[in-house]
From TrEMBL:
GO molecular function terms listed in the Swiss-Prot or TrEMBL record: DNA-binding transcription factor activity
PROSITE patterns per UniProt: HTH_MARR_2
Gene3D superfamilies for the chain: Winged helix-like DNA-binding domain superfamily/Winged helix DNA-binding domain
GO biological process: response to stress
Organism expressing this protein natively: Amycolatopsis vastitatis
Domain HTH marR-type: from-to ranges: 7-135
Protein name: MarR family transcriptional regulator
SMART domains in the record: HTH_MARR
Length: 135
């Protein structure tokens, strides 16, 4: 198979996987009464972090992450506290309700995940290949 055929096939498959994963996140968001971006933010808030760190994890602009955080804060799912070592930054911490909603989101994301049909070693191999492409 020619290199351009492989490139085309890989691009098509990755694009299809991205659409499938996006649809899965949207279904989870609908069930939780959240937006897909809010679900992704909750997934990434496994520990106290800054908005800048969250933006990097979500692969979005800091202003977009701040908008998502504002909506989650309005819903009582997180609080912002002074950062312990950086006076200019705020640390984002999930509330008890936010932790519960995060746990439910993680459950739903795991249920019927498009990657669920792969063995763990296959999921790890896929992750490693995608990381290599992103480097």
């Amino acid at each position: 198979m020619a290199s351009e055929d492989i490139d085309r096939d890989v691009c098509k498959l990755v694009h299809g996987l991205a659409r499938t994963l996006d649809g899965h996140v949207r279904r989870v968001a609908d069930e939780l009464g959240l937006t897909p971006s809010q679900v992704v933010a909750l997934r990434e808030l496994s520990e106290p972090i800054t908005a800048r760190e969250l933006a990097a994890r979500m692969a979005c602009e800091a202003s977009n992450a701040t908008f998502v955080l504002d909506r989650l804060e309005e819903r009582g799912l997180l609080n912002r506290h002074p950062h312990p070592t950086d006076r200019r930054a705020k640390e984002i911490v999930l509330t008890a309700e936010g932790l519960q909603r995060r746990e439910r989101a993680l459950e739903l994301l795991g249920d019927h995940s498009p990657l669920g049909s792969l063995r763990t070693d296959q999921q790890e191999a896929l992750r490693d290949l995608l990381k290599a492409l992103d480097a």
